[in-house]
Amino acid sequence: MKLAVLGGSYNPIHIGHLMLADAVSLRYGYDTIAFVPAFLSPFKDGHSGCTATDRLAMVKLAIADNPAFYCEPCEIERQGVSYTIDTLKFLKEKYPQCEGKIGLIIGDDLLAGFNNWHEAEHIPDYADIIVGNRMIDRYSAEQSQTASPLFHLRVDNALLPVSSSGIRAAIKEKKSWRYLVPSAVYSYIKEHKLYE
């Protein structure tokens, strides 16, 4: 088993998350990608517009048709602030058959601030850092890349101008957003009247 992890708020999960995970799987041969919704990110003030249960449900719906993707609920079950190092240790213990280090997928927008993460210096002991395209401003992405001394792998995923905050804003402003999320997630958001 070759495992990679893509954590996040997933408020809501969107096609950019799915395409990044797929690109990492194809490029580096990971047969399992764990989507890990954070209970509470240390860098965010909360998850407006929905509950942790809603975010977990949307992730499960979004990945249901891909057997290589699974939803890991450990951070939501643990509650409190979600730290990547704790999740990596948990997954290493849960999956002792895991080949090598776990792949930790992050966007290039997080690279410059990586050293501010809880126990950042220990994360490379547990994970290979894999950085995907997230920034639309390529100059900023290049600056972020050169500013970080952290050894990491790159994946050249398609850069989509989509974000969870943009989707929430579009819903609130009654603008088009339907095709930025998988259809099951769209139906869930509409049915539960999230982000209105």
Task: Describe the fold and architecture.
Pathway: Cofactor biosynthesis; NAD(+) biosynthesis; deamido-NAD(+) from nicotinate D-ribonucleotide: step 1/1. Strands 3-2-1-4-5-6 form a six-stranded parallel beta sheet, with helices on both faces. By secondary structure, the chain is of the alpha/beta class. Helix 1 (15-28) links the parallel strand 1 and strand 2. Helices cover 38% and strands 15% of the residues. It has one domain (3-161): HUPs (Rossmann fold).
Question: Helix proportion of residues, in percent?
Answer: 25-40%
Coarse shape: globular
Q: What is the structural class?
A: alpha/beta
Which architecture would the CATH scheme give at its second level? 3-Layer(aba) Sandwich
Low-confidence stretches: none
- The level-1 CATH class: Alpha Beta
β content, as a range? 15-25%
Return the domain count.
1
Helix count from the secondary structure assignment: 8
Radius of gyration: 16 Å
CATH H-level homologous superfamily name: HUPs
- Summarize the main sheet: 6 strands, parallel
Element string (H = helix, E = strand): EHEHEHHEHEHEHH
Spatial strand sequence of the major β-sheet: 3-2-1-4-5-6
Compute the number of strand runs: 6
Function: Catalyzes the reversible adenylation of nicotinate mononucleotide (NaMN) to nicotinic acid adenine dinucleotide (NaAD).
Pathway: Cofactor biosynthesis; NAD(+) biosynthesis; deamido-NAD(+) from nicotinate D-ribonucleotide: step 1/1
Protein name: Probable nicotinate-nucleotide adenylyltransferase
Catalytic activity: nicotinate beta-D-ribonucleotide + ATP + H(+) = deamido-NAD(+) + diphosphate
